[in-house]
Amino acid sequence: MHISPLPLTRDLVLIGGGHTHALLLRKWGMNPLPGARVTVINPGPTAPYSGMLPGFVAGHYAREELDIDLVRLARFAGARVVLGAVNGIDTDKREVHVPGRPPVAFDVASVNIGITSDMPTLPGFADHAVPAKPLGLFAARWGDYLNGAGPAAVAVIGGGVAGAELVMAMAHALRAKGRIAQVTLIDSASALTATGAKTAATIRQAMQALGITVIENATIARITSDHVALDDGRQITADFVTGAAGARAYDWVTKTGLDLQDGYIRVNGCLQSSDPAIFAAGDCAHLIEDPRPKAGVYAVREAPILFDNLRAALGAGRMRRYKPQKDYLKLISLGGKSALAERLGTSFSGPLMWQWKNHIDQTFMNKFRDLPQMPAPALPRHHAAGLAEALGDKPMCGGCGAKVGRGALRAALRDLPPPERADVTPLPGDDAALLHTGGARQVMTSDHLRSFTLDHVQMTRIAAVHALGDIWAMGAAPQAATATIILPRMSAELQHRTMAEIMTTAQDVMRQAGAEIVGGHSSMGDEMTIGFTLTGLCDGDPITLSDGQAGDALILTKPLGSGVLMAAEMAGQAKGAWIAEALSLMTQPQSAAARLLAGAHAMTDVTGFGLAGHLNGLCEASDCGAEIDLDAIPVMTGALELSAQGVRSTIFDENRSTAPELPEGGKADLLFDPQTAGGLLAAVAADQADRLCLDLQQAGYKAVVIGHLTEAPGLRLQS
């Protein structure tokens, strides 16, 4: 008896990738709740661990050591990732709003977004300073400044523990670089009031040893390019200004209608807000039964409670109450590899405390670097011969990596009889057919993709751009589309939500391309598949594969590597930032590129058979060969590294067999990597190639000349 995957019945949406949600996702991956579809929404593919920020600023850690990879973590948890900044929750409609996409519906939601800063409201801050968060911008600006030359002048605004740690780290880093530095800490009140007297004295002594000037009870009038002006007329020299003060809740939270405390979401002991379906944790939450200061330790310890309570809200188990500890261990970096530890009014400092802090931080981060290997379901004891070999040792690829090989497809098409209708013109090798309707020339194509991302909105965009590629490659204007959708098993309510998001997205992509969705078909299956049948209109003869000429330059409009990246992501081997970049490239429409390449002699889109396979098809149809400049071919970030590790798409070996004359290894392997929604490959007159590439680059494409057509048949690399 065949057992289908269990249907999905409830939507859990995690807003933010803070420490609580990161730990929750890890627990979820080890013990998922059947029937629950989990979504995590975050502005970027990573979430920084703030506890190691001072160590990074001081030079003790590399930038990437601070990041929790949410894309990889979500794949482990079986959750979809939505990359975007939430700007609202509609509690009546049970929807989360993210700019640029349909609302994300939920049955249960949790908020773990941390806090933001009032710093940009200071006159001149936005123009002449950089906040310590978000970390990405700060890290880039600080790295550039630290590696500069000459005397340095730095000012940090905010005299709490965070500001003190930051200013000591900056002073240490500048000293280690051998740069003469004026470093100043500025606070509107007395500094370090949240710590005990002994702790404050130790920190002040450490700042003094690092040559830091502390200015207290000072009001900032404005910030300029070279100084901070105070209300009393003093001017503090500074050409790098940052801030760790003015913490506040995000503005959009105030518009949710939830009960708030000073802008923070009020939650009870179960971490529930005034709306029982919405939970909150970490710094964005206010514990009404037992208020506590904002500190990461509470966010971490809330994770197991939130895990159980979200499952209970989804229908499994009972709620638990969170009881925060009265005090907690504070570990404060002192610039160099020295730290201060304080608890219950007692403090110790020195290198040993830094080693302790580093051990705690690394142990926390290792939870996400070294995700546990969950065992695959065992094969039945009795099974047909060859089942284990057919199943393979890695997940089956999605997108174009799941295609049937070119050889099998060509063999099947070869046996079909030629068209009998006079209004259908066969175009051997092309992915679209040419139809004559009245006086109009119309091309028609169909394409569908097995999903490789759990975000069905992102997958819809990719599938639509992918299907449109055949129309654009023939120089046609997209006209009409029908959609074919297979949904995994889910409840009627989730079907409605999912189909609404898919069709809204599909209509948006098609209309931007100039086409209209005129119908479609949907069904249920074991997994999601999205496809489109499209027509396009040609003003003149379509651009086919068969008119390439020896000497033509070959232009490619997108980098290679999506196949190896998606294969690695499914196996949990790719960095989230690489995947985010690849998905962005796959959703880039080719309409503007097609218009610029309208005069091409021959053109195709690079998809499942890889660059070599599609170029081979163009050469065969045009009765020529090609030389490829391997060094010129652009590749997606991370693709070469993963390929060198042996990561391959399911169809790679079949693609490789189409051009055995080409070398193996290194960058050459990416010539056979199946691309999803890949770039256009155009054969153009050599004297027009440079101008066309420049026009394409100005239009936002990573277009380059990658070789030229030759009279001699076959593919070869330029020597």
Characterize the structure shown.
The protein is α/β, with parallel strands linked by helices and about 725 residues long. The protein folds into four domains: about 10-115 and about 250-325, FAD/NAD(P)-binding domain (3-Layer(bba) Sandwich), CATH 3.50.50.60; about 115-245, FAD/NAD(P)-binding domain (3-Layer(bba) Sandwich), CATH 3.50.50; about 430-540, 60s Ribosomal Protein L30, Chain: A; about 545-719, PurM-like C-terminal domain (Phosphoribosyl-aminoimidazole Synthetase, Chain A, domain 2). The chain contains 20 helices and 38 strands. The protein has a six-stranded mixed beta sheet with strand order 27-28-29-32-30-31. Strands 34-36-33-37-35-38 form a six-stranded mixed beta sheet, sandwiched between helices. Helix 1 crosses helix 8. It is globular, with a radius of gyration of 29 Å. It starts with 9 loop residues before the first strand and ends with a strand. The mean pLDDT is about 90.
List its salient traits.
719 residues, FAD/NAD(P)-binding domain, six-stranded mixed sheet, 31% helix, 20 helices, 38 strands, 4 domains, 60s Ribosomal Protein L30, Chain: A, alpha/beta
Q: Would you spell out the secondary-structure blueprint of this structure?
A:
Layout: E1 10-15, H1 19-30, E2 36-42, E3 46-48, H2 53-58, E4 67-69, H3 70-77, E5 80-83, E6 88-90, E7 95-97, E8 104-105, E9 108-111, E10 116-117, H4 125-128, E11 130-131, H5 135-146, E12 152-157, H6 161-176, E13 181-186, H7 197-209, E14 212-215, E15 220-223, E16 227-230, E17 235-237, E18 240-243, E19 247-248, E20 260-261, E21 264-267, E22 278-280, E23 285-287, H8 296-313, E24 330-333, E25 339-343, E26 346-350, H9 351-369, H10 387-391, H11 406-414, E27 424-425, E28 433-437, E29 440-450, H12 456-473, E30 477-488, H13 492-513, E31 516-525, E32 529-538, E33 553-556, H14 562-570, H15 576-586, H16 591-596, E34 602-605, H17 610-622, E35 625-628, H18 639-644, H19 652-656, E36 680-684, H20 689-698, E37 704-710, E38 714-717
Helix pairs in contact: 1-3, 1-8, 12-13, 14-15
